[in-house]
Amino acid sequence: MKRPLGVTLAAALSGVLSVALLAVPAASAADGTGADASLGSRAATDAVRPSVAECAPWTKTKVASGFGVLENLAFDGHGGLLVSDQGAAVTPGAIKRLTPDGRRSVLLAGVEGPGGLVVEGRSLWFNAGNSVLDGLLGRRTGTVSTLDLDSGAVTQLAGGLAMPNGLARLSDGSLVVSNDVVPGTMTRIAPDGTRETYAASIKSTNGMAYDREAELLYVASTFTLRTTISVVDVRHPEATPRVITLDGLGPLNSADDLTLGEDGRLYVPFNVAGKVVQVDPEDGSACTIATGVPLVSSVRFGAGPGWDGNALYATSFLGSVTKLTPPAAAR
């Protein structure tokens, strides 16, 4: 186990200072208790689904442990689970690969503060410079790069970013990078390299899940006073987003890198609370599917040979990967 105390203190300090420095209130838009067809939601085409206000617990199985601080994960579609390993006190960060039979390898060494990961085809997009200290001090040392998974070639796409945390790639090829401390807003990087503040009303931005079909971007806010998920209409990002408000104080939950399932529901890890919550974005109903997952940082459904596509895989700041398997009735 690598520096769990330091990570816990960093998370707590980050939360307290973020609230104090940013004075971020809960978003003032609608609270997401109903579907909004104008945002291109699935409600217009999907059958009415039952509420997720109640759900059975998912089974937890430890897949791997002994990594450094794990920030994010993605599947490469060829049998690999990729993780952003921020290292430990005396080891540098790296992007690493885990196979279903437990083999580990370093995909890219010497990555300082790796953050969000996005895989499309044989390309990996990734953030670096996701350092709490840099975020609190406003240092702009962060970058976004792409890694060719076949050749190993790395190309930097943007630099000068402040603590780039989450990452999403939109259908037009642009990238959206989040920041949950200072300044707490998102940045859109166009394919030509130009950048702009994105959906500026959302603060303390962290995990993002992109619904390519509906052109919606779901954004978790970590250190706002209330835990929220903002629903950005990608076609009109300047519009006030619909907001889903979840139970609990923001810093005590610390919503992290969420994912969107094929069932149209969101799965949100609460880092400090150590649990994973399922959310119906249409009516805002939510329930807890797993507890006792300390410092959980990111969740994704399995993809590729050897990984269970019905199960969620969760990373933790404590260096572990956990499989969350739904009850048979939910599959």
CATH architecture title: 6 Propeller
Query: Into how many domains do the coordinates divide?
Result: 1
Percent strand? 35-45%
- Rounded mean pLDDT is 86
Rg for CA atoms: 18 Å
Low-confidence stretches: 1-50
User: What's the number of extended β-strand segments?
Assistant: 24
Name of the CATH first level: Mainly Beta
The largest beta-sheet arranges its strands as: 1-24-23-22
CATH fold title? Neuraminidase
Explain what the structure shows.
This protein has 331 residues and is mainly beta. The protein has one domain: TolB, C-terminal domain (Neuraminidase), CATH 2.120.10.30. The protein is 9% helix and 39% strand. The protein has helices at 4-22, 132-137, 250-253; strands spanning 59-64, 70-75, 81-85, 94-98, 104-109, 117-120, 123-128, 142-148, 154-161, 167-169, 175-177, 186-189, 195-198, 205-211, 216-221, 226-233, 242-249, 259-260, 266-270, 275-279, 286-290, 296-301, 312-316, 321-325. The strands form 6 sheets. The protein has a 4-stranded antiparallel beta sheet with strand order 1-24-23-22, with no helix packed on it. A 4-stranded antiparallel beta sheet has the order 2-3-4-5, with no helix packed on it. The protein is globular, with a radius of gyration of 18 Å. The two termini are 33 Å apart. Mean pLDDT is 86; it is low at 1-50.
